[in-house]
Design brief:
3 domains; three-stranded mixed β-sheet; 33 helices; 10 strands; membrane
Length: about 775
């Protein structure tokens, strides 16, 4: 009996191995064996099903996409398309050209909404193509549906398919390239040379959009050439045609020099009108060709690989991860029995891609914002992982169908429904951005408070990209002059953009550590020179009035948003920064601070921000915007505290600043409690509690002095007595430690709490 069972298992094993043949061979065998006509008709539905998959995915994406501007590079990409400019390296010319077409073709909606729709469209089409890829490899509709929807509905893919970014276009192009590779491997021999031309053209298009695709192309091209050579289809003529097809795919890169030569964009990156400038931009030399960002370091290969494996288990499910791991054996068996090598290449691609990316991803993923940057590049690997896992699922299901005689049943549909339902439910909670206007609100609310005709020098992606988009593309605050201070160090910056900013006087050609003249005659200047050249610069400007625009003569204030560049610090010896909403007003040293007047100007600048603190995922642009606006709510109070701590404790100014800081924080906390539905200590950021406790503690020291009594009696504000100040200090230090249990000063603050509590206990005993 034991021998009999072993013999049967070997027969089953042989039957399973034959199932690892490509879809077309499986179809041929089924037709040869006269399988039911209904099953053959089902296979003809693949394109209709693929279209349905794309339509369903598109409907989901459109229902949940951003209604306005998201964070990140979206603002920059749309401005480039809107103004005929160039985006940051490598320029993304294909995405820019397609965006330009959409901006002119779609008659309704804002520019950002139109490009968001474009991204959703490419993401949806990619989903349908993935279904076809999987079906062609295993002739299993259920596996195709599982794979396509698990990919398109995964949180990472869904998120970046609902905003104006290049990743959904990359998914579409790579899916088309993988489908071409599958058809090349299992299709008819006579079509393989034509498919090599199509694949070569797609390789060029992929590189015109996203450079990471080269890590797949380096595996596909040698494989195709080797197959053509074995089939005796490789000739000089075919090589030339393949090369021409590839060059045609790179044609979008002509946009870069054309844009630079035209020089009509109010904002652009780089000067590609010269060969050197073009190559610099193409190879991302300003960022580091093989790095994500310049002057950063990551956590190493092992940590990067562990992070990716954790990601696929979380985003694609443990089940998909398990089938992906099993695909190594499935692929080997398929290759042994049928000679089909496309899955071997797919496996090599995903391993090679992740190995290279984990090696070169030079960002610290312990920083949530940097982790978000790295995560986006995992999508490319996820696409192939899902294909491999789906084929494994189909072959394992076929194994059980043959083993238990279940061919007439479609249990795999029942198996996939809970998985897809769980994926949809989980991702919908994370990716529904239909009401997400956080970045838009940040930009519009902070732009609205600037004085007329201000000069805004931006720093960082959040203010630079959001301000620039609304200013250029939607015409918000046309009286302002907005310029990115961080690009001033590039020598192409002012030659390309100076003429569009007549309101700013640039004292040279580029920002440098020292001012002087370089060998080519260009003049360098410091940030101090720039501020000196524009500070208190007056002229005739236009302002918005009830009857439209009118010209007035006034001095233009200068604001730094958010902060000042860190390249050189010469300006610090002559200027200070005073907080103004999320930005800082640049003030010449020596100017007197009118505490009441500045408080009146700035106290209410961020009062309309209604989002609760810590209400967004850490590392998201929504979280960054929210944190900045909450900082703005208390910025003047914190500023007064910082200034006070630099003064002698017995000075009148010291007490006045502390007093106003206390009053501002008290009012801000009360307002936050009124707006919040919870009315708890979590209604404000943790550092508010710490700083308020510090203010109260400093006031305690002055509570018994004559100067204190004099100021307190003359103050219109109701400042508590000493005991109340002690209780407030104790309470807010406790709240801070509750919210920040791992703060570096935990021990010192805990000691202060114990001291304060002991003082209060003694007072209570004496009563």
């Amino acid at each position: 009996m034991a021998t009999g069972r072993l013999g049967n298992s070997r027969k089953i094993s042989r039957r399973v191995i034959t199932s690892y043949r490509p879809a077309e061979n499986v179809c041929d065998e089924k037709r040869t064996n006269s399988k039911s006509s209904s099953e053959n008709e089902t296979k003809q539905w693949k394109y209709q099903i693929a279209i349905s998959v794309s339509l369903v995915t598109f409907a989901v994406y459109v229902r949940t996409l951003h209604p306005s501007l998201p964070g990140g590079d979206s603002g920059e990409l749309v401005v480039a398309a809107h103004d005929f400019g160039v985006s940051h390296p490598p320029g993304y010319p294909l995405f820019t050209l397609l965006s330009m077409c959409v901006l002119h073709v779609i008659p309704v909606g804002s520019p950002i909404w139109k490009i968001n729709i474009l991204s959703a469209t490419f993401g949806a089409i990619a989903s349908g193509i993935i279904y076809i890829i999987i079906y062609r490899l295993c002739s299993n509709h259920g596996a195709g549906l599982v794979g396509s929807f698990m990919f398109s509905l995964s949180p990472l893919v869904w998120t970046w398919s609902g905003c104006a970014e290049v990743f959904s276009l990359n998914n579409f192009l790579l899916a088309a390239l993988l489908l071409t590779a599958v058809e090349f491997d299992i299709g008819k021999a006579k079509n393989r040379i034509k498919l090599s031309y199509v694949g070569s053209f797609l390789c060029g298009l992929c590189l015109s959009n996203q450079h990471t695709s080269v890590l797949y192309i380096v595996f596909l091209v040698p494989w195709v050439m080797l197959r053509l050579w074995k089939l005796e289809l490789l000739s000089l003529d075919s090589v030339l045609k393949v090369t021409v097809a590839f060059m045609l795919g790179l044609i979008p890169y002509l946009y870069l020099p054309i844009s630079s030569i035209a020089n009509v964009a109010r904002w652009t990156w780089g000067d590609q009108s010269s060969l050197n400038g073009f190559i610099t931009h193409l190879l991302r030399q300003e960022y580091g060709t093989w790095d994500l960002l310049k002057d950063h370091s990551g956590q190493g290969f092992i940590h990067g690989m562990q992070s990716y494996l954790t990601h696929i288990a979380a985003d694609l499910s443990v089940l998909v991860s398990s089938f992906a791991a099993l695909s190594m054996w499935i692929t080997a068996q398929r290759y042994k029995t049928s000679g089909s090598s496309v899955l071997v290449i797919f496996t090599a691609m995903v391993i090679g891609y992740n190995a290279f990316f984990c090696w070169r991803a030079n960002l610290d993923m312990s920083n949530p914002l940097f982790l978000k940057v790295v995560e986006r590049f995992w999508i490319q690997s996820d696409l192939v992982v899902v294909v491999l896992a789906s084929v494994s699922f189909a072959d394992v299901y076929r194994l059980f169908s043959e083993r238990f005689n279940l061919k007439g049943y479609s249990f795999h549909y029942f198996l996939m429904m809970p998985l897809l339902a769980l994926q949809l439910h989980r991702s919908l909670t994370l990716c529904n951005n239909s009401n997400n206007t956080v970045v838009r609100d940040f930009a519009l609310q902070s732009l609205a408070v600037f004085p007329n005709n201000s000069i805004i020098l931006t720093k960082g992606d959040l203010p630079s990209n959001s301000y620039r988009y609304f200013h250029f593309c939607e015409g918000v605050r046309p009286d302002l002059t907005i310029f990115d201070q961080e690009i001033l160090t590039y020598r192409w910056s002012l030659p390309m953009t100076r003429k569009f900013y007549p309101g700013i006087h640039f004292p040279g050609n580029f920002l440098h550590m020292k001012k002087g003249v370089v060998s080519n005659g260009q003049k360098s200047f410091t940030f101090l020179d720039l501020i000196d050249a524009n500070y208190n610069r007056s002229g005739f400007w236009f302002i918005r009035g009830k009857k439209g625009l009118k010209f007035i003569h006034r001095v233009r204030p200068i604001f730094a948003c958010i902060g000042v560049q860190e390249y050189e610090s010469s300006w610090k010896k002559s200027y200070d920064l005073w907080p103004y909403s999320v930005c800082w007003k640049i003030i010449k040293k020596g100017e007197s601070l009118d505490i009441d007047q500045w408080e009146k100007k700035t106290e209410h600048l961020a009062e309309h921000w209604h989002y609760a603190p810590n209400s967004f995922e850490s590392g998201s642009w929504e979280s960054v915007a929210n944190d900045e606006m909450w900082r703005a709510k208390s910025a003047t109070a914190m500023f007064y505290l910082d200034v006070a701590l630099k003064l002698p404790e017995n000075s009148t100014e010291y007490f006045e600043l502390l007093l106003h800081s206390y009053q501002l924080l008290s009012r801000a906390m009360k307002q936050a409690s009124r707006v919040s539905p919870t009315n708890s200590s979590d209604d404000v950021p943790s550092y508010w509690h710490r700083n308020f406790a510090i203010v109260c503690e400093r006031l305690i020291r002055r509570s018994s002095t004559d100067q204190y009594k004099k100021n307190y009696s003359n103050s219109s504000a109701s400042l508590p007595d000493q005991i109340t100040l002690v209780r407030l200090t104790n309470h807010h230090f406790k709240q801070f430690l509750r919210l920040e249990p791992f703060d570096p000063d935990y021990k010192n603050i805990k000691e202060a709490i114990n001291t304060l509590q002991g003082y209060l206990d003694n007072k209570d005993k004496k009563k």
